[in-house]
């Protein structure tokens, strides 16, 4: 298949981009990595009149820890996340997720921010950000605003971002000592979307959970945050019973639909199993292992 | 509708007027007649269209030609441009890493990039790196062997500058 | 640089492939690489519905797009009597729908434009007014008395039933079942899948309106047969049609049939007077061309208490889609499925098959398989697994007990196949040893005590490949012989022209090696040509593993024909009697004095310069080979899996494959074929599925949902071989391209069933996905 015609813009600065988006309104669509958008254009599931390509704005490709915050720029690509020693050492859930995104070649171009804005309920990064309790900075010509990841997603392929805005920065609270995470994904093969995936992030404090983040992929109309499971963990010691309880609550939070990847019961079970396994792995990492 | 772009393809600057919707793979195949880059699917799964953009493997069916403006694109045709086979090409033949040949250009380019990043990859690292390129004929066994053999060859000839020039391309 | 091998290319030598030099440089010439002056591009407008009546078609908007040259509909084709075409199974198929659409993705209109992007834009603007009809998506539904009639245009067709066919001896089989101690049953479904070569199908049709000559570049596995069919379909004089099949990016059966796109592009080129290119995109490939399998199978096995198989009874129901277009020998409605007794000495067997139309794509191609042999092999190997479980026998032991023994060959099977040669116990024993079967059984027992699930799958397949003989096997009436033409030039270099056509199998190398073996000309000096009907002798093409058994035999025979003449010339050169001339690997010499010799090159030169009186000049010949029998490759495949009880995920830990394909011409190439076949078997067993929803929407229409294994999932294969030559093949070879795809799915599934059989689970239909495994475990209370 081949895309329908559109007009193409490649601004060199963020300001120029925001100005363009402001002019184009609903007719404009931001092109970052393009690894979801271009296939959609080819299948003609999407036919925007204007594409605004931000790839020429090289200073949007960043990952840095500053002032107690991990900041991710709009052009930070999956491949960079996969190769980041910072993420590998301290942001396990991200380091786990990165190599499980699509396939290695797609990861060379696809971006974290693009994937988050695309908001595929089977996408991985939204779930990871929910577990990490991230903030999203949305910027337009008229200013910027910050929304919590959990307030960002509003349904399948749908978010609260305006067509005139870009996701200019993802902000994640800097990892502290005694934190650990994991991302477990069930996919049918490399390059497949998740049947189910679970993101776990734990902040421990002398053997007790200070805070827990649990995100769920592909088991709802959007990436989900298992808030009751998180609450059940808070302040608890991570014994088997606590883990089982949290896993059961995470499974309850899931709203899967039956499809060719499996039944409701099956997917819910995988959420439970992965939450258990994820909590154990995250806990081990928080204690400096694994 | 046309937009002027200049892309350095296999070391040569190419300027053309293209429609924004033209995919990079069609620019290479139809405009430049570099038909070694193939098309196997519509959905960014098969990797037959893999080329190197500024040295990085990219599926050229999932990039617009206009996006390549000002960039360096390397296709399979460049691998033996000097007349001598690149070690990866020689290894694919030697180890029977191809059958119908349709996935081969993409496989080799992904492998070239892998070997630049990891000169001595393990079997699993090779399989992981090539998991965005589908082959329907070989069952991958001999492709993995070919990449290992090319790695060994490139390491052995690293001391000999002339032999290394081909691999320095891209 | 790797050092080029000094091997000459005799049989048994793993010389490197000649064709690789162009492929590794990106200099192959595939269909889509072909560009002709003034060439136009075609895009197809397809039906969004599985079953609907066409009320009207409006092409005005499409016609109005700048760059559009023509819009072709079924009505236009009907004026030229081209709206329907014959299929390979004697049915008819709509080229472009005129009355109804009968499957989602069916061809309705074609746009011809100056640019492929414009053709696609315009194809989307064709407006069709449909009256949607209820869709029939299973053969069981199709055969209900009140099912909507799909082929209402066919005279005398009052139901969706297509054929009934039987093989074997029903009475004798009933007797065997009456005597049996035990009867083991298995109902299983071999689902629809698709060969999905990496290159899709396409054509560049170039009809010269001045001369009437049509040059058709096509992704064709059978260019000669296609030429004849084109002559019949399009009413073109056959001498004016030239089909050129360029480099093909994989076929696996997908490129055997003639598709509507080929016909429309040719008609359009004829009407417009310019070349027309049509290349499918991947979705078109998956939804409209060349599906395979879709067989519902019900098997019963009669056994004695000691595990000896007495009889086999099979009922089949095939889902053939909207048009019966299976690519298979005319007389065999379920292909060669009746090879279903497999590797076992079964005294009585009976197969009954019925086929039904459904609102799904037509095709029924032999996907890396010799006409339904894969389905047969799968059923018997799964049934034996069931029997082993039911009777508490080791799956290897029950096979050893029932194998046809080496001394029983040639062996006449209960369904009428004469097996040429085999040594099944030997191949199995080698596989068991390589795997360390006994140790793994111990490990399995230990694991089972801890609640861990591990399985060892066994499959011992026997294939039947290499059709003809022509008196029994034909495609659309064309007898299944094949051909080779060999021309040795004065300098001793040669050109070999074949009626078969490689799609990656390496013919340019392996067929040269046959000539090397027979005539002593180094393989490097032999150019192999295929695919151009003007320049190669007539043949039926490459599928059903028939190139080596039939085309390879033709090559050996034509070489021998030339050798006989060369011997006469050598006698003349050596001034000796022909009866005293001996030949050994490229040298002719007088018996007893090997120093006095002439090389094949000397003789070739003499064939043009210094002939015996009265002898015709030249050293050329052609042979049409009609095989006396088919060949029967076999082997044993063993698979070890571990299963995650929490997710149902199956991890293939090991796979051992022992194959016997007779004499191996080029062991490197043979092994490559096997690796590829095993991978496709793995894909079919675990992920490759074309399925449909209740409305007939195809749910496997691109690679997002039609899953193909990558390097990461694909197991690492451990290979082994035995060699039992075919007694009737000139060089003892049997053909190998499909063995692994035929034999391996059962090995994979048996491994899963072996892991969970003790829980009472007997079957999980392919693809064996994690959710199905988990559901089966869950039902038995064994899931995590």
Summarize the structure.
The complex is a heterotrimer of chains A (290), B (170) and C (784). Helices cover 36% and strands 15% of the residues of chain B.
Describe, in plain words, how this protein is organized in 3D.
The complex is a heterotrimer of chains A (290), B (170) and C (784). Chain A is of the alpha+beta class and 290 residues long. Chain A folds into three domains: 46 residues, Uridine Diphospho-n-acetylenolpyruvylglucosamine Reductase, domain 2 (2-Layer Sandwich), CATH 3.30.43.10; 111 residues, Uridine Diphospho-n-acetylenolpyruvylglucosamine Reductase, domain 3, CATH 3.30.465.10; 106 residues, Enolase-like, domain 1. Helix content of chain A is 36%, strand content 26%. Chain B is an alpha+beta fold and 170 residues long. Chain B has two domains: 75 residues, Beta-grasp domain (Ubiquitin-like (UB roll), Roll); 82 residues, DNA polymerase, domain 1 (Orthogonal Bundle), CATH 1.10.150.120. Chain B has a five-stranded mixed beta sheet, sandwiched between helices. Chain B is globular, with a radius of gyration of 16 Å. The N and C termini of chain B lie far apart (31 Å). With 784 residues, chain C is an alpha+beta fold. In chain C, strands 3-7-1-14-11-12-13 form a seven-stranded mixed beta sheet. In chain C, strand 24, helix 14 and strand 25 form a beta-alpha-beta unit. The relative contact order of chain C is 0.12. Chains B and C meet through helix 2, helix 3, helix 4 and helix 5 of B and helix 1 and helix 17 of C.
Topology:
The complex is a heterotrimer of chains A (290), B (170) and C (784).
Chain A: E1 7-9, H1 14-24, E2 28-31, H2 37-42, E3 50-53, E4 63-66, E5 69-72, H3 78-83, H4 85-90, H5 92-97, H6 104-109, H7 112-118, H8 125-131, E6 135-140, E7 143-148, H9 149-152, E8 153-155, E9 158-159, E10 166-173, E11 179-186, E12 196-205, E13 208-217, E14 224-225, H10 227-233, H11 240-253, H12 264-286
Parallel strand pairs in A: 1-3, 2-3
Antiparallel strand pairs in A: 4-5, 5-10, 6-7, 6-10, 8-9, 11-12, 12-13, 13-14
Chain B: E1 3-9, E2 12-18, H1 24-31, E3 50-53, E4 56-59, E5 72-74, H2 87-94, H3 104-117, H4 123-129, H5 141-157, H6 161-168
Parallel strand pairs in B: 1-5
Antiparallel strand pairs in B: 1-2, 3-4, 3-5
Helix pairs in contact in B: 2-5
Chain C: H1 20-23, E1 40-46, E2 52-58, H2 60-63, E3 68-73, H3 74-79, E4 84-86, E5 92-94, E6 100-101, E7 107-113, H4 116-123, E8 127-132, H5 139-142, E9 161-168, H6 170-179, E10 182-193, E11 202-207, E12 214-218, H7 223-234, E13 241-244, H8 260-272, E14 276-279, H9 282-288, E15 292-303, E16 309-319, E17 348-356, H10 373-391, H11 395-402, E18 411-412, E19 418-419, H12 424-435, H13 437-449, E20 453-462, E21 474-475, E22 478-479, E23 482-488, E24 494-498, H14 507-519, E25 526-529, H15 547-573, E26 581-584, E27 587-590, E28 593-599, H16 600-609, E29 620-625, E30 634-643, E31 650-660, H17 667-686, E32 717-721, H18 739-756, H19 770-779
Parallel strand pairs in C: 1-14, 12-13, 16-17, 24-25, 31-32
Antiparallel strand pairs in C: 1-7, 2-6, 2-8, 3-7, 4-5, 9-17, 10-15, 11-12, 11-14, 15-16, 18-19, 20-30, 21-22, 23-24, 23-29, 26-27, 27-28, 30-31
Helix pairs in contact in C: 10-18, 14-15, 15-16, 17-18
């Amino acid at each position: 298949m081949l895309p329908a015609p559109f007009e193409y813009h490649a601004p060199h600065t963020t300001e120029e981009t925001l100005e363009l988006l402001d002019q184009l309104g609903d007719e404009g669509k931001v092109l970052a990595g393009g690894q979801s958008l271009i296939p959609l254009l080819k299948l003609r599931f999407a036919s925007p009149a204007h594409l605004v390509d931000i790839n020429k704005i090289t200073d949007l490709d960043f990952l840095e820890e500053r002032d107690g915050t991990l900041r991710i720029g709009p052009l930070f690509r999956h491949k960079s996340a996969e190769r980041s020693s910072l993420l590998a050492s301290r942001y396990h859930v991200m380091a786990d997720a990165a190599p499980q995104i699509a396939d290695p070649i797609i990861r060379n171009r696809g971006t974290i921010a693009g994937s988050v804005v695309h908001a595929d309920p089977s996408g991985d990064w939204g779930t990871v950000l929910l577990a990490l309790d991230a903030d999203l900075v949305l910027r337009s010509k008229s200013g910027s605003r910050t929304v919590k990841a959990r307030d960002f997603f509003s349904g399948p392929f749908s978010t609260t971002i305006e067509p005139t805005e870009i996701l200019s920065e993802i902000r994640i609270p800097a990892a502290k000592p005694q934190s650990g995470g994991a991302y477990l994904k069930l996919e049918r093969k490399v390059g497949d979307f998740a049947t189910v995936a679970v993101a776990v992030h734990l902040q421990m404090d002398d053997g007790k959970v200070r805070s827990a983040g649990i995100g769920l992929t592909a088991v709802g109309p959007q990436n989900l945050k298992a808030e009751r499971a998180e609450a059940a963990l808070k302040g608890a010691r991570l014994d088997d019973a606590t883990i089982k309880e949290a896993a059961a609550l995470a499974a309850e939070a899931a709203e899967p639909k039956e499809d060719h990847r499996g039944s409701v019961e099956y997917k819910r079970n995988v959420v439970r199993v992965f939450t258990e396994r994820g909590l154990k792995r995250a806990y081990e990492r928080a204690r400096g292992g694994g | 509708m046309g937009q002027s772009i200049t892309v350095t393809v296999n070391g040569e600057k190419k300027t053309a007027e293209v429609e924004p919707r033209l995919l990079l793979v069609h620019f290479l195949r139809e405009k430049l007649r570099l038909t070694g880059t193939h098309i196997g699917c519509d959905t960014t799964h098969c990797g037959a269209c893999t080329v190197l953009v500024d040295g990085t493997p990219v599926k050229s069916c999932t990039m617009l030609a206009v996006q390549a403006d000002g960039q360096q694109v390397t296709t399979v045709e460049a691998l033996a441009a000097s007349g001598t086979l690149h070690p990866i090409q020689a290894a694919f033949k030697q180890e029977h890493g191809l059958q119908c040949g349709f996935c081969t250009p993409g496989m080799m380019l992904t492998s070239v990039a892998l070997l630049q990043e990891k000169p001595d990859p393990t079997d699993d690292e090779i399989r992981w790196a090539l998991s965005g390129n589908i082959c329907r004929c070989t069952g991958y066994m001999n492709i993995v062997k070919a990449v290992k053999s090319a790695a060994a060859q490139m390491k052995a000839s690293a001391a000999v500058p002339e032999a290394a020039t081909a691999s320095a391309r891209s | 640089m790797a050092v080029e091998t000094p091997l000459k290319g005799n049989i048994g030598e793993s010389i490197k492939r000649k064709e690789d030099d162009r492929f590794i440089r990106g200099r192959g010439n595939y269909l889509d690489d072909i560009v002709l002056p003034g060439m136009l591009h075609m895009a197809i407008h397809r039906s969004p519905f599985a079953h609907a009546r066409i009320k009207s078609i409006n092409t005005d908007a499409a016609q109005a797009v700048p760059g559009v040259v023509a819009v072709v509909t079924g009505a236009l084709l009907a004026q030229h009597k081209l709206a329907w075409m014959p299929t390979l199974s004697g049915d008819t198929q709509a080229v472009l729908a005129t009355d109804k659409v009968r499957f989602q993705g069916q061809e309705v209109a074609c746009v011809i434009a100056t640019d492929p992007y414009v053709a696609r834009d315009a194809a989307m603007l064709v407006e069709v007014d449909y009256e949607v009809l209820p869709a029939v998506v299973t053969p069981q539904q199709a055969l209900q008395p009140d099912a909507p009639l799909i082929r209402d245009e066919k005279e005398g067709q009052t139901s969706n039933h297509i054929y009934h066919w039987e093989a074997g001896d029903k009475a004798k089989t009933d007797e065997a079942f009456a005597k049996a101690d035990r009867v083991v049953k298995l109902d299983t479904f071999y689902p629809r899948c698709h060969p999905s070569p990496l290159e899709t199908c396409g054509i560049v049709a170039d009809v010269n309106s001045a001369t009437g000559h049509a040059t058709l570049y096509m992704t064709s596995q059978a260019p000669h047969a296609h030429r004849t069919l084109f002559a019949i379909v399009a009413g073109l004089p056959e001498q004016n049609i030239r089909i050129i099949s360029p480099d093909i990016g994989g076929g696996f059966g997908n490129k055997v049939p003639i598709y509507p796109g080929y016909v429309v592009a040719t008609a359009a080129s004829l009407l417009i007077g310019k070349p027309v290119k049509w290349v499918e995109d991947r979705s078109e490939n998956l939804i409209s061309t060349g599906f395979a399998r879709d067989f519902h199978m019900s098997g019963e096995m009669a056994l004695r208490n000691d595990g000896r198989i007495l009889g086999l009874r099979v009922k089949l129901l095939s889902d053939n889609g909207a048009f019966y277009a299976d690519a298979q020998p005319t007389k065999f409605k379920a292909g060669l499925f009746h090879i279903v007794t497999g590797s076992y000495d079964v005294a009585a067997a009976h197969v009954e098959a019925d086929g039904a139309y459904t609102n799904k794509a037509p095709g029924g191609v032999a996907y890396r398989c010799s006409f339904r042999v894969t389905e047969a092999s799968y059923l018997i190997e799964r049934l034996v697994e069931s029997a082993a479980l039911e009777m508490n026998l080791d799956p290897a032991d029950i096979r050893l007990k029932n194998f046809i023994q080496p001394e029983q060959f040639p062996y006449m099977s209960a369904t009428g196949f004469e097996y040429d040669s085999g040594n099944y116990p030997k191949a199995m024993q080698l596989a068991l040893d390589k795997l360390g079967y006994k140790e793994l059984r111990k490990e399995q027992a230990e694991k089972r005590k801890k609640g861990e699930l591990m399985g060892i799958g066994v499959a011992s397949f026997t294939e039947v490949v290499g059709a003809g003989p022509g008196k029994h096997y034909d495609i659309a009436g064309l007898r299944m012989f094949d051909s080779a033409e060999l021309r040795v030039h004065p300098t001793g270099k040669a050109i070999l022209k074949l009626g078969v056509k490689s799609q990656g199998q390496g013919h340019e190398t392996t067929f040269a090696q046959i000539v090397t073996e027979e005539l002593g000309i180094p393989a490097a000096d032999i150019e192999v040509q295929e695919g151009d009907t003007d320049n190669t002798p007539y043949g039926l093409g490459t599928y059903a593993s028939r190139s080596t058994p039939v085309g390879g035999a033709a090559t050996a025979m034509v070489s021998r024909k030339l050798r006989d003449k060369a011997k006469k010339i050598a006698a003349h050169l050596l001034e000796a009697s022909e009866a005293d001339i001996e030949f050994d690997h490229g040298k002719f010499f007088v018996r007893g004095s090997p120093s006095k010799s002439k090389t094949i090159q000397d003789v070739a030169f003499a064939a043009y310069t210094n002939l015996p009186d009265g002898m015709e000049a030249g050293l050329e010949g052609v042979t049409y080979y009609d095989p006396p029998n088919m060949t029967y490759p076999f082997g044993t495949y063993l698979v070890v899996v571990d299963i995650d009880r929490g997710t149902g995920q199956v991890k293939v830990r090991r796979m051992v494959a022992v194959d016997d394909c007779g004499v191996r011409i080029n062991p490197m190439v043979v092994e490559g074929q096997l690796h590829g076949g095993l991978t496709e078997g793995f894909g079919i067993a675990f992920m490759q599925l074309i399925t449909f929803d209740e409305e007939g929407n195809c749910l496997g229409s691109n690679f997002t949902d039609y899953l193909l294994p990558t390097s990461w999932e694909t197991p690492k294969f451990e290979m082994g071989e035995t060699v039992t030559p075919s007694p009737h093949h000139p060089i003892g070879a049997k053909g190998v391209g499909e063995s692994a795809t035929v034999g391996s799915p059962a090995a994979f599934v048996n491994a899963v069933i072996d892991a969970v059989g003790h829980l009472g689970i007997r079957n999980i239909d392919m693809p064996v996905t994690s959710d199905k495994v988990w559901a089966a475990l869950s039902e038995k209370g064994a899931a995590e």
